[in-house]
Amino acid sequence: MEEVDTIIIATLRDVGCGFDESVVSLINFSAAMVVEACVRCLRVILPDFNCPASMPEVMSARYRMCSTLANACQELGYQGEIGYQTFLYSSVKEWRKLLMFLLEKLPREAVQAADEPTGARMVLNRRISAELSAAITSSWTPPFCKRHGLVLRKGHWQREGGAGCHGYHSSDVRAPEGTGDISARIPKDVLRYYSSHMRFVPAQPRVRRDVLASLLERNASEVAAQQEWEAEWNTQGLTSRLSEEEYRARKRQRLKKKLTEQLTSSLRQGSASASAALGAASDLQTILNSFTDKLSAGVQGTGSRFQHAEKLQFAKEEEVPMQVEEATEEELQQQREQEVASLQEQLSVLTAQLEALELGRKKFSASMQQMMERELEQGGQNKDEEEAYKVKKKTHDLLPNADENMRKLKELVQGSADRLTKLSAKWEEVRGPLVERYRVLRRESEGRESEETRLLGEVGRLRSRMKEVADETRQKESLYKQLVTEYEQLSKGQSRVSYTRRILEIVANIQKQKEDIGRSLPTLARYRRR
To answer: Can you say whether the dihedral through the CA atoms of 353, 356, 361, 362 is positive or negative?
Structure first.
């Protein structure tokens, strides 16, 4: 069966099934692989057959899909029993039978293609040839009949030509800034500009088809800026022990200072144009101030919801003095050491308190365990005393009328004796037929022993027959292996159809013998049960 499985798997791969190289037998197949193989074969046999090759995850959809495959196989003439259970819960034997039937139904062109080499280069050449043949045989469509270069080919939309393509060109687009932060103060003139004069984003690019590229470019720049800020804050901002606002303010101050120094040095070098440079410096200072104000407003407007809530809650604490920036490194180091010392002192106090609490907890746990044990012991004593009290109370209640209670007790004893007598009589009435029935069944059992002896002899004969059939099967298998060896020794130029047919005949004979054995097994099992 391994050679048959190898031929089946190779043919299925040529049909289009993407099985792994580790799959060498149908034993490695799963329900999803069987469904994919059947769908690929049915697509080749029936060009109009439309069904997905992958099995859905929903169980009801699996049932419907497998039922559709079963109906298609029955329409092709499959004689065996087939249903959705054949694909989902069947055995390897049923899968092999079904796949052999579908492979026999494949067109001759598909079979010839299966005999060809299956390398990646040959597959690529065949696909290129098929595409070129389809393009040559298809009718010519004028360009004005193709909207955006799309045309319908064999039920699928394909793009032909470059009518629907254009270059990726982006332009600068702007959107209102700072409107996301309700605590930010935006001037009325700016709001009026946003509401009355600023154009919508789709209308800002000169060409309308550049809107998407412009939006993608703006989003990419914002994402890159945010990622750069997060990387800088995680590497440098956290180590500075400053808040984000303080870190941004210090960074802006350093940038302004650096630009001012560079501008001053350039002004000193170019003394000939000092007046013009001073005017440019004042203009540059104004631009820097506006740039820093705009940057701070943009930072406030691009915060998260948690940051907005925190700003609203601590709005009065926004007046952070800039004197922190003027502190020297020595003062900062001294402050850090003082903070570390105070924190260590607090840590030691909390550690002592924690140890005291842990000791108290252990003592309380021990006392609680003792109290629970005493409670359980006292509960058992209470139950015993309650039982003794109930007995004594009942006895005390019976003492005032001792004679009357004795008479009632005797009546109860006499009634119990009468009931026992009646029950024994009823039991004898039931016991008699049961004993007779037991004797009859015993005689029948003794008669069956002889029948079982005869059946055991017949079982022995059937076993000998099974051994003969097994020997014959082994001979057939050795003959099959011999034929496979001869087939491998033959030249590759000969057709494999006759050898495949011979292998299939041998497999059919083996299956027929197994069916004969299967028909005799129920009889053997029935004899054993008797």
So the answer is: positive
Query: Predicted confidence band at 220 (pLDDT cuts at 50, 70, 90)?
Result: very high
Q: Where are the beta strands (DSSP E) in 336-434?
A: none
Q: Is residue 171 part of a domain?
A: no
Are 291 and 366 found together in one domain?
no
Question: Is residue 197 located within the same domain as residue 294?
Answer: yes
Instruction: Return the pLDDT at 304.
Output: 39
Judged against a pLDDT cut of 60, whether residue 167 lies above it is answered with yes
* 317 & 333 share domain: no
Asked which of 326, 345, 363 is the last residue of a domain, the reply is: 326
Q: In this predicted structure, what is the pLDDT of residue 326? A: 44
Sign for the CA dihedral angle at 457, 459, 462, 466 comes to: negative
Gyration radius of the chain over CA positions: 48
Place 74 in a pLDDT band, splitting at 50, 70 and 90: confident
User: Which band of pLDDT confidence, cut at 50, 70 and 90, is reported for residue 465?
Assistant: confident
SS3 readout for 71-106: HHHHHHCCCCCCCHHHHHCCCHHHHHHHHHHHHHCC
Domain range for residue 52? 2-118
Tokens standing for residue 113: 């293609």
H-helix or E-strand spanning residue 477: helix 402-489
Q: Kindly indicate the confidence band of residue 450, based on its pLDDT and cuts at 50, 70 and 90.
A: confident
pLDDT tens-digit series, residues 267-306 = 777 654 444 444 554 555 555 555 455 444 444 444 433 3
CB atoms within 10 A of CB 485: 9
In a domain, 149, yes or no: no
Q: Are residues 353 and 319 in the same domain?
A: no
Q: How many structural domains is the chain composed of?
A: 4
Please state the pTM of the whole predicted model: 0.27
Quick check: is 225 in a domain?
A: yes
Q: Closest Cα to residue 118, out of 3, 12, 5?
A: 12
Length reported for the chain: 530
Distance CA 18, CA 22 (A): 12
Query: Are 302 and 180 a contacting pair, CB within 8 Å?
Result: yes
Non-local CB neighbours of 375 within 8 Å, separated by 6+ positions:
none
Does residue 119 carry a pLDDT above 60?
no
Cα 234 vs. chain centroid, distance in angstroms?
Answer: 34
| DSSP category for residue 155 | T
Whether residues 218 and 341 fall in one domain: no
Centre a 10 Å sphere on the Cβ of residue 500 and count the other Cβ atoms it contains: 17
Residue 337 and residue 246 share a domain: no
Question: Which position has the token pair 């011979």?
Answer: 502
